[in-house]
Amino acid sequence: MISGTPGIRPLEIVLDTEEPESRWQIQPEIRLRLHEIPARAPLLLPPEEQSRLNFRMLPTPPDRFEAASPPREVHIDDTALILATPPSSIEWIIPPGSRTLTGMFAMASGSRGHERESDGATFTIDWVAAEGGESRRLSEWTLQPVTSTSDRGLHSFEVALPLSPGRAILQTGPGATGDANADLTAWGGHHIPVTGRFHGKVPEADLMRRPAFSERRQSNRTRP
Amino acid sequence: MNHSGSTRKEKGRVPFQIRQIIAEAVRRLPPPGVVTRASIAEVRRVIDSLRNQPILILAAVTIALTGMRMPRGILTNELDPSWAGVLESCARLGHQFGTDTVYTFGPLGYFETAYYSREFFHDQIDWQIFSRSLIAALLALATSRLAPVGRWLLFGAVVILQPDALMVGLLAGSLLLATSDGRELRWAALLSAPLLIAAPMIKFTFALTILPAMISIIGIHLLAGRRRFAIGYPLVLAISFLITWTLIGQSPWNLPAYVINSLSVTSGYSVSMVRDGELSWLVVSLVTLGAIVAAVLFPVASTLYCRRWRDLATAILVAGIPLVFLFLTWKHGFVRSDAGHASLFFTIAPSIAALGLLAGFSPSWGKTMVVTACLSALVGLRIIGMNIEPFAALDQIAGNAKTLIEPDQSERQLKRALKASAAAAALPRTVAVVGDQTVDVFGHRQGAALLNNLKLSHRPVFQSFTAYNSRLISLNDRFYRSEKRPEFVLFALEGFDRRFTPLDDSKALRTILGSYKPILFEDHHLLFQSTGAPLPELRFLKALTVHPGDRIDLSDYAGRDLWIEADISSSAAGAIRSIAYKPTRTTLKITRATSEPDRREYFFAACAAPAGCILSPLLLQPDDIRHPRNSPPGDRSGH
Fold first, then answer.
1. Whole-prediction pTM
2. Among the partner residues B570, B596, B617, nearest to A7 by beta-carbon distance
3. Which neighbouring-strand residues pair with A106?
4. How many Cβ pairs within 8 Å bridge chains A and B?
5. Is this prediction's ipTM beyond 0.95?
6. Which CATH topology does A47-222 take?
7. Cβ separation of A33 and B612 shorter than 8 Å?
8. Contacts of B218 (CB under 8 A, 6+ apart)
9. Cβ neighbour number for residue A131 with a 10 Å cutoff
10. In whole angstroms, how far apart are CA B55 and each of B140, B169, B397?
């Protein structure tokens, strides 16, 4: 398997014209033939390449990715971003040296117009020093695209990182009421000047049926 | 000269008659020295007459400079630069068109792509100078036959709107060949010949306009009693075409394949790339179309009234030429009705309208219709969002003149841009693995291989979405099952227009997934390497007949990899609509196995459907390429 996600299968199909009133343009009978494709050897990518594929929307695969759903590509304003539904955490190990962390964040349009509309979401960037484990918040934003039009679309950020080695952690959380069900939060950008290797396992939980935050964090930790 | 008497006697012995005419023509040829002296005298006479026509010369130079498509584009890994890059690569490597490469463009396609070629930059410029000079001369010849209104209309249409210059030149040449005689006919024949010979080798679709035009021209000259020209000229063109085809390294034996396979691409395009546009665009285009048809058909109606049957036949044949050009450009503009394609029609329509005046006398009715057509074309350009900038021609002239005066400096700039493009598309890890072994690109980003100087060994229909129908899909699959198959494949699953991605080049896709293995991922491409594993045959499950809109339950086949083939035929009325305009889009609606109701609709091209495609699992983006049996049995339904 190349992907970290299980297969998506069709349950039912319908062949038709785009507009039902255009059916007069095709014959009333469509002949179908169904075949089974025989089993073949699994299409496996080496783990490092798998990681590059999963995180192809980022210039460098993160060292850790935790979210309810597998990393998925979403397009917002024609830019490919990685969907990281809250609560999520993306982490890079940053070697010593002077640098800034630049990128983008957004909430996908699915956050609006759903039966259950989003109450907003938070985006934070934290720094954890390699020595001593001291943690500090570098930046924090809240987006409410349902009520605020200026919160829609892409938002850029540029954050100065400490010179010492450490870890940059990009997190998303639910909005004011703590309901994350309709929050399609995403990170991206081609200017995150970090290097590193993905170590964590990609979670395979269903996007729409996720367990509570603590349970999911626990389940992720228990994975080999 | 009238040969009507001998025609009656030798009826039914056409081949012999042709031989006789050729022999007679050769016998009557004057000695070479006489020909040279006569030609020089004729050219001197033309130069003398042009000395008194400074405005005509200025107009011709302006037309030539605005019509040039100088190489300004740079190879990238995007869709259009990629096909242009492959055409250049084919010319460099001597690929055979029709067998090695199947496309709408031919072996000289790189002349007109406007993308820079390291190998052929100066050839591209030379062709632009040569062809645009011929086109300008043909238009100058045409304007000498038009009234001042038509003359300025044509000049304005060509210079300001900048339509496809080659198409305008072919139409002007065809109409002059159809409506001239004597000295003017000789000049029209001389100036048109290189364009008529080269155009089908540049883009096959030009042949679709040239062939009906040539049939009309033959008919017109036969009716006028000019049999020697009617048969001799097309024969000379055909022989010259064959010689040129051979000289540029193409085998004459591949010509039938070139014609058949290019026709297959052209016909598949109108089904597989169909896209609906705004109704207002269509209405304005029909007004433009109707006005030109009315203008062109007026002489036919006049002749019908006078009941002179020979004149009527001639008028119909003459009118047929602009009508063929008009219909094909209209169809090209509105089969895939986006602003870019629609603009192709609206920019050329005024030129067709003005040149259509050559088709007959131009009473006030004809002129009114031509002006109506021009105005509605301008409205059309406005509503599709194209700004008409009368002075944009000056920029075009300045840019082209600069390239002509300082080609080396232009090339240096293009080389710098190409270097930057190559750096942006660099695939160092892929290059390190592939080395000098062969690679094909599945998808439409062939530029990725070319920019990285990989040894591209592409399947015949080299961009996946252009394998429009069963014939082309099978052609590619045969390539992948042959000894010619590449060692590596740079693979990207990318759809557009809500196409059902697995249907694009479906058989090659299945062969790659079965006989290659993925080894790395770099910059949106998976690199597959051949395993040489034989591809197992499909296992037939079920045949069924359904009606459009019927639900087909697949729950019996949950967890199995499925291949579907569908015969979706046009009804008689649908076929007529398809020829006259475009077919309807057929779709595949899929309810996915998800926790929430999830139904999506994809464009499912009827012409490709009989070849079949992978239906389950759904392969819609790179993540979806996987082997479902690798996941636990109870975990096969995704998000």
1. 0.82
2. B617
3. A186
4. 285
5. no
6. Jelly Rolls (2.60.120)
7. yes
8. B230, B231, B234
9. 8
10. 11, 20, 17
